[in-house]
Amino acid sequence: MPEPRLRDFKRIVFFTGAGMSAESGVPTYRGAGGIWKEYDYRRYACQDAFNRDPEAVWEFHNYRRGLVAACSPNRGHHIVARAGQGSARVTVVTQNIDGLHALAGSREILELHGNLWRVRCDTCNIKQQDAHVVREELQCDRCGGWWRPDIVWFGDYLHEPILDAAQAAILGCDLFVSIGTSAVVYPAAYLPEYARKAGAVRVEINPDETPASDLYDVHLRGPATEMLARLAGDDPELLA
Ligand code: APR
């Protein structure tokens, strides 16, 4: 199949993982320099750890906030955002919690795994959205309990309405571009199947092969910024 060009499609879904933000300096989870090689998610990124030792979880969480706060959207994030400002309808379905798609100007974003900058109190059923900064106030001002990072941790269920919206967007798309995901975490890893059902052209952007590679028509084996520039072709609107 010839390499597609974004301008030829009307309904595009970008499905992004940690590799989308790698060139912004945000560490990925797996592979070289992956976070889970340094930190055991069972101690820092799951509900049991939070119930057992909320201070350790917050220390890790604020460490990550500090890292990501120093990172900006890369050229790939900007191409994705600009694709959504043209005639095509664009939905970003992201596993990333870093907030860089929104910072780049993407509007229709479905965050499958939550958001690094948002916290919630499950006792008071309230949420707070922070700027891209480390959080000082760790106790809910209403009940005094610990604010919980509003992230889908291992063992958590995804937020059904967001997953349903992602599936609906993919079932209606004519181009599905997966960028920088190792395709090993479910149910997100199942989403390319919906693109196959939709009959969409399916592109995988990843320097490496993944367990989902067979589901794609086109494989762009390189970094997100360069491969997205190739999909943008010579369209000055997208490459500004
Ligand atoms: N451009 C594109 N892809 C890249 C780049 C890059 N510059 N650098 C690395 N990659 C690819 C890697 O080859 C790998 O396949 O990005 C992928 C990153 O994989 P993971 O670190 O596993 O990230 P992801 O797939 O998003 O993880 C899914 O797992 O830990 C949970 O909730 C967490 O959302 C996360 C989920």
From TrEMBL:
Residues 1-240 form the Deacetylase sirtuin-type domain. The active site is at H113. Transmembrane segments: none annotated. Keywords: Metal-binding, NAD, Transferase, Zinc. This is protein acetyllysine N-acetyltransferase. NCBIfam families: PRK00481.1-3. Its EC number is 2.3.1.286. The keyword Cytoplasm does not apply. InterPro entries: DHS-like_NAD/FAD-binding_dom, NAD-dep_sirtuin_deacylases, Sirtuin, Sirtuin_cat_small_dom_sf, Ssirtuin_cat_dom. SUPFAM superfamilies: DHS-like NAD/FAD-binding domain. It comes from Nannocystis punicea. It holds the Pfam family SIR2.
